[in-house]
Design brief:
40% helix; alpha/beta; 250 residues; globular; two-stranded antiparallel ribbon; 9 helices; Rossmann fold; P-loop_NTPase; 9 strands
Length: 250
């Protein structure tokens, strides 16, 4: 593993095994896994670590050479579906939208849903081999250097059979569009993390990323991030798997 896990080895292994078993039940369609959790819970880290664990398990348990490909499992962030800053400023509550960026209403769930549905399309059958052939989909990431999404930055290739997405609101069902996003996932995972632990992680992140002193960083971490996190915590009930975040340096 390239990163330290933020959950126990037992929980990680059990989650990976559930994913592999579910994928093998319906190989004609990509398996979508959605990981949600409050800001600072460790979603990005666990998505990458879980993807590594699933890759290892596929290579061990599967005789299908397609399952041994490095791109058989890919992660994608929800951050690429932030509204652009110019879109936020154009909203009737523009100043608040910019200030609250990261709240569920500052993302574009329709765009996210469209991409997830494209990823879920059933595989075609290759004429020469008769094997499933998935469609290629390109999805955005978030460019922190410019503060806006970077379009088509991740390629989900025809070799990719399992996509692990991570983001605050992937289990949120508070609006019809967000509920539709949630329905795109075959397996919903919630990364449970104590609020105070997540807040300290965000504080440390802000100190490094924005060169803030601890007091200023903590003010940011206990503001909009904490408000968003409290909403995210209410979506735990929608998860198929609950993982428990442990303290480590992210």
């Amino acid at each position: 593993m390239t990163k330290q896990s933020v959950v126990s080895p037992v929980e990680l292994r059990d989650a990976a095994l559930t994913i592999v078993k579910r994928y093998k039940q319906a190989p004609q369609r990509r398996l979508l896994v959605g990981i949600a959790g409050r800001p600072g819970s460790g979603k990005t880290t666990i998505a990458e670590v879980l993807a590594d664990e699933v890759r290892t398990m596929l290579r061990t348990l599967s005789d299908d050479p397609r399952d041994h490909a490095e791109k058989a499992v890919v992660t994608m962030p929800m951050d690429g579906y932030h509204y652009y800053r110019k879109e936020l400023r154009a909203m009737p509550n523009g100043p608040e939208a910019v200030e609250r960026r990261g709240a569920e209403w500052t993302f574009d769930p329709r765009k996210l849903c469209k991409d997830l549905q494209a990823i879920r399309l059933p595989a075609a059958t290759a004429e020469t081999t008769g094997l499933p052939l998935y469609n290629e989909v390109r999805v955005p990431t978030f460019d922190h250097s410019v503060g806006d999404p970077k379009e088509e930055d991740i390629c989900i290739s025809g070799d990719t059979a399992i996509v692990i997405a991570e983001g605050n609101y992937l289990l949120y069902r508070g609006t019809p569009t967000w509920a539709e996003v949630n329905r795109c996932f075959d397996i919903g995972v919630f990364l449970d993390c104590p609020a105070d632990q997540a807040t300290w992680r965000i504080c440390r992140r802000h100190m490094v990323s924005f060169k803030l002193n601890q007091e200023s960083a903590m003010m940011r971490a206990t503001g909009s991030d904490a408000t968003n996190g409290d909403l995210v915590d209410t979506t735990k009930k929608n998860a198929d798997i609950v993982l428990h975040s442990i303290e480590c340096k992210l």
